[in-house]
From TrEMBL:
Keywords noted in UniProt: Disulfide bond, Glycoprotein, Immunoglobulin domain, Repeat, Signal
Example of a GO biological process term: immune response-regulating signaling pathway
UniProt protein name: Immunoglobulin domain-containing protein
InterPro entries: Ig-like_dom_sf (IPR036179), Ig-like_fold (IPR013783), Ig-like_Receptors_ImmuneReg (IPR050412), Ig_sub (IPR003599), Immunoglobulin_dom (IPR013151)
Superkingdom field: Eukaryota
Record's GO cellular component terms: plasma membrane
């Protein structure tokens, strides 16, 4: 059977048993009002038709099509607003058949409401293994949903059924939790329309883990071994040095040998080298 309204203006494609495409957004799926975003739909090298769709309740609406053999198709939204925010999916066609749709990609537009305030109940510095509690609050707008995110990254958590504030717990934390965090407020009736971003809150996770200690211990052992080798070399040089010097100096010292004359009882000393034989 055909895909109904999705292909009213095109040929009738059947559903094929193809790999499911993947969909992503760059630079982020959270876009400020009037900002631009690029949607990437990845299929196969044999794909010659791509289709971007936006979900509307139980059905969907075709947004744009791309024709041409390519593994990845790019769709650009130049101006994000409340009409372009929503849940997107894509699919590709080959061999006169359509793939199944991708998973949903949620595009959110921000800046429609005043920004909330992000704070931490404890300090902004934590040790690995600890938990960090954050609070997103609004003094002027009665949001019933709050979201915590990092700039350029995915939404980390969403707090539901809140009134004026949302509490988030991060942890147990490690060094990767260090960075800048922001939060947004929104209403459950308009899940893809968020407030302006809150103030940026920087968290720092400091200290070392057991793996870090092991690495440091190996470094210390290596340095100790190097110092030991240097000390042994110095000691060996000090022991061999005087012997070499003594052997060299002996060549310049007189050779005090003695001989007993057959007819005399006196001792005769001979001085060497040859230039001193005149004194014998």
């Amino acid at each position: 059977m055909c895909m109904g309204s999705a292909l009213r203006s095109g040929p009738c494609f059947l559903l094929g048993n193809f790999p499911i495409p993947s969909i992503s957004a760059t630079p982020s799926s959270v876009i400020p009002w009037n900002g631009s975003v690029k949607i990437l739909c990845q299929g196969t090298l044999e794909s010659y038709l791509y289709q971007l769709e936006i979900r509307e309740n139980l059905t969907y609406r075709v947004v744009e099509k791309k024709l041409g053999f390519q593994e990845v198709a790019e769709f650009v939204i130049n101006h994000m607003d409340t009409n372009t925010a929503g849940r997107y999916q894509c699919r590709y066609g080959k061999e006169h058949r359509w793939s199944a749709p991708s998973e949903a990609l949620e595009l959110v537009v921000t800046g429609l409401y005043d920004k909330p305030f992000l704070s931490t109940n404890g300090g902004q510095v934590a040790m690995p293994g600890e938990n960090i509690s954050l609070r997103c609050s609004s003094a002027h707008v009665s949001f019933n949903r709050f979201s915590l995110s990092r700039p350029g990254g995915a939404t980390l958590s969403r707090h539901r059924d809140a009134r004026l504030q949302g509490d988030f717990t991060l942890g147990p934390v490690n060094l990767s939790f260090s960075g800048v965090y922001m939060c947004y407020g929104w209403h459950s009736g308009r899940p893809y329309v968020w407030s302006a971003p809150s103030n940026a809150l920087e968290l720092v996770v400091t200290g070392t883990t057991s793996q870090d200690h092991t690495t440091e211990n190996w470094i210390r052992l290596g340095m100790a071994g190097l110092v030991l080798i240097v000390l042994l070399a110095i000691l060996a040089e000090n022991q061999l040095g005087p012997q070499v010097i003594h052997q060299k100096d002996q060549q310049d010292l007189p050779d005090l040998s003695w001989s007993r004359q057959e007819s005399q009882t006196e001792w005769t000393f001979r001085l060497t080298p040859k230039d001193h034989q005149g004194y014998s």
